[in-house]
Write a structure and sequence with these properties.
The protein is of the alpha/beta class. The protein is built from 3 helices and 6 strands. The N and C termini lie far apart (39 Å).
Length: 175
């Protein structure tokens, strides 16, 4: 029950975080036409750990390179800010389960809540001042179920169930 409450609190906080930055500052990119500084053209050279491993070992302030898939919630990406949920690659999404016809395979509805809580994290792509960019990442080519590598710093960890990464770079894995 406690895990469900924490997960619900994380998901309820997503709109609050994303609603804080409605207008773009001069350092923020708000259109897909401009090349954002946080979108990495190539994969980071440091090895990327899985979401589950980072969540189990990371401490507030640690610098991380993490690999996962956008998903883990019905709406894993915010339309108002560069904030999304990432799931560990070890979890099969519903589209990978034979015979499953789930209309939203990125929500991982087939996974037990305990597993989902242990293998997901919230990513906030932040500017130089630490504020999430006011941009919809879908306009930059990202979508639910995309595999990504995230570079950033671990945010506050009020409990082991919560992992927020303050990302400074995202690489979309292709191929």
């Amino acid at each position: 029950m406690r895990i469900r409450m924490i997960h619900a609190a994380m998901l309820l906080a997503l709109p609050l975080v994303t609603g804080c930055t409605r207008e773009a500052t001069p350092t923020q990119t708000t259109t897909a036409a401009a090349e954002p500084t946080f979108m990495l053209a190539s994969s980071p050279t440091d090895p990327a750990a899985g979401v589950e491993d980072v969540k189990r070992t990371a401490k507030e302030g640690d610098t991380i390179v993490m690999r996962g898939r956008i998903g883990g919630h019905r709406e894993p990406m915010s339309a108002d800010a560069a904030v999304f949920i990432i799931a560990d690659l070890s979890m099969p999404h519903c589209g990978e389960i034979e015979g499953d016809t789930c209309p939203r395979p990125w929500d991982y509805c087939c996974e037990p809540r305990e597993s989902l809580m242990a293998k997901t994290a919230t990513i906030q792509v932040v500017d130089g001042l630490g504020a999430p960019y006011a941009v919809d990442l879908r306009e930059m080519g990202l979508a639910p179920l995309d595999e990504v590598i995230v570079v950033g710093t671990v945010g506050a960890r009020p409990s082991p169930d919560v992992l927020v990464i303050r990302a400074t770079g995202i690489h979309r894995v292709t191929g």
